[in-house]
Amino acid sequence: MSWKIPLSDIDYGQEERLAVDSVLQGRWLTMGAITEEFEQAFSAYTGARYAVAVTNATAALHMACVVAGLGPGMEAIVPSLTFVATANAIRYCGATPVFVDIQGEEDLNLSCQAIEQAITERTRAILVVHYGGYACDMPSIMELAHEHDLVVIEDAAHAVGSELGGIKLGTWGDMGCFSFFSNKNMTTGEGGMLVTNDEDFAKRMRLLRSHGMTTLTLDRHKGHAWSYDVVDLGYNYRIDEIRAALGKVQLTKLPANNHRRRHLTQLYRQALQGIDPQVLIPFENHAGISAAHLLPLLLPAGSNRLAFMESMKAQGIQTSIHYPPIHTFSAYQTGQKNTSLPVTEAIAAREVTLPLYPGMSDEDVLTVTRAIEQALMPV
Ligand SMILES: *Cc1c(COP(=O)(O)O)cnc(C)c1O
Predict the structure, then answer these.
(1) Catalytic-residue membership of 248
(2) Phi/psi at 282 (nearest 5 deg)?
(3) Model's pTM, two decimal places?
């Protein structure tokens, strides 16, 4: 399928090619000096004291849950309106995801009231997701967490560069997880980052990332170490130098690209005004600065979403759904709590994600909104 306007597109050019070339010439491919430079640049950008580069955000989420001490018999609170990886990470540790409802049409992030009601003796952590790059109510969530002695993990896969109250998302909680998957705001193909301000957490993350070993292949290559001890049950969640080099370049492009995404989001809002008052783009008056990763559209209640998406497709416009709620998946019919989330279910059924990427022109937005007008027309 060749789309007139795809859902997303990468911003890759000569800089990325040169960066990869220089790694290849250096002849050191696995985690090394470039990875460290990428981590330093990321920690400087986000303001997090420690940044640990990993294979992908799923690995980051898993390690965060391990570091948080999640295990069998424990519960972690999480939204259902997110990618399945957020909840899977809890289950990897043998703990139980407790799904909570979202705020409503204007704010697709989880509701603080719902979080509070879901807290039990067994609750150990809250995993928040900043939907589309729009901030959850972090001040209230952190207050709740302190009151109940809970660890807060931020799934900031959509939120690289987002801020709330001048603080970057991913650094509000105890740990923040970022994704550099192909369709994210900055990408290395596959890749992720785990950030924290806690030194002990950071040390444990570095161990867990590489088999719990006390020395790295690089240390032995440099002749700094002959052997090693294994002091923790670790994983192989390392990134490599090629991706780290791509990440360094992509990070320099991020601020301008996020700015462009916010501009396009504004254009969408303006262009959609007057089309149909029942069609809405959430987060109109959200707090903070969003990375504007997604452009979610809510169709009028009771609309035929499939027919709408088919009509958009016929007009060459790619759309998607974020998300089918996790608690409705077959693999989630056991081992979880909460099977009724009325707000999530009602809103998820109306959601269609529209094209949004920095390379989109202003005219492209109008092409999409004209297609929406067409797709909403009664047949
Ligand atoms: C993309 C995404 C992930 C998973 O990221 P990977 O890097 O592909 O593992 C997790 N959570 C959310 C909300 C995502 O959008």
Answers:
(1) no
(2) -65, 175
(3) 0.97
